[in-house]
Amino acid sequence: MLPRQSVAVLLRLLQRLRVKTRVRAFKGLIVALCLGVTTAWGQQTDNPYHVELDLGQQTAYLIRGRQVVMQSPISSGRYGHLTETGSFKVIEKERNHFSTMYGKIVDANGNTIVADADADMKVPRGGKFVPAPMRYFMRFHEATGMHAGYLPGYPASHGCVRMPEQLAIAFFDKVDVGTPVRVFGRTPRTNYYYRYGPQPLNRQPWLGGPIDPRMGRVYDPRFDPRYRPPDPWWR
Questions:
Q1: CB-based contacts of 149: which residues, under 8 Å, 6+ apart?
Q2: What is the pLDDT of residue 37?
């Protein structure tokens, strides 16, 4: 057995070691917090832009300070797949993104069997699931993001926010990971929200066109079903 004096010395050494370890751990925590705050501050201040998505007006705004520098028509999530509202940040950017959940199913000859398919649907022998393209993808909440896509004139997606490709490119070039995104407004119901596309009265600068007296709203011939191109398979 060790003498009492030796035991006392060992206990004092252990206490000093514990104190030093705690001090080091505390210093490490302080450094980590400082780095985290610096990173968050950098994300908030380095990029002067933020994005606002108005679901009610089906419009995206790129804002610098208090000035709208760009706006784009959008097609957000339809009922059953509504785009979630709230305050978010861009968490990923990918130029050539493909959906992991939605696409189409084709047979062995490449013919489309199911145009609006989920990834977990049964695929016939020789066929395959083809994921939907979502170019210039800017993810801001879970699997939801802004990307280039087809705009039929009303909310039609599975939750993402579609934009015309040229405007999607412009937004993609301006935002960074960490850019704030605010989603607000109530998604209009399709059967009420316009017969020929989502352009309320006098909402022009990008479309214009004469006012259709039958609907009391801006009429754009490009949304007239008689001149509408075939609905593409991606959603």
A1: 75, 134, 157, 160, 162, 163, 168, 234
A2: 38
